Amino acid sequence: MVKEHTCVLLIDDAEIDNFINENIIKAVGISYVHVFKSGQSAIEFLENLQRNISFMRTSMPQIVFLDLNMPLMNGFQFLNEFEKFDDAFKDEMKFVILTSSHDPEDVKLAQQNKRVIKYLNKPLSEEDVKSIVSMICTPSN
Fold it and tell me: How far apart are the first and last CA of the chain?
């Protein structure tokens, strides 16, 4: 079951992937989806959110779908930048790597990051989203 204010960040440089994945996420009942085509723009959004958290509570993402292979700032670089945020802020979010990479080294690096709860290969499915939501967005959370 999706909580009333479940919010998702989708970070991927591929416009068509964003379009498809956003629609899949919304199809399971999540209406708050923030889409970013670069890790840097997502970091800037989160910086603004952290500064204004009391005013932007409904924008606080619980789930972040993160692509690995992006120009300028790849997914692992994004995760490193994310660690600079306040602990209480970071603890609100769980990461799902959503990538086309089948590289075992990428899988290993993702599994070593305590914020990454799942490693998925594209394409995203409704079943994937439902499973993730049930893991972290239960009504008791």
Answer: 12
Token readout for 90 is: 């970071």
What is the distance between the alpha carbons of residues 141 and 3, in angstroms, rounded to a whole number? 9
- Model confidence over 20-47: pLDDT tens digits? 999 999 999 998 999 999 999 999 999 9
- Beta pairing class for 63-66 and 7-11: parallel
Sheet holding 32-36, edge to edge: 32-36, 7-11, 63-66, 94-99, 116-121
Unique residue bearing structure tokens 């700032």? 73
48: enclosing H helix or E strand: helix 39-51
Distance of alpha carbon 64 from alpha carbon 118, whole angstroms:
11
Contact 50, 86 (CB under 8 A): yes
Residue type for 12, please?
Answer: D
Model-wide pTM > 0.85:
yes
d(CA 99, CA 12): 9
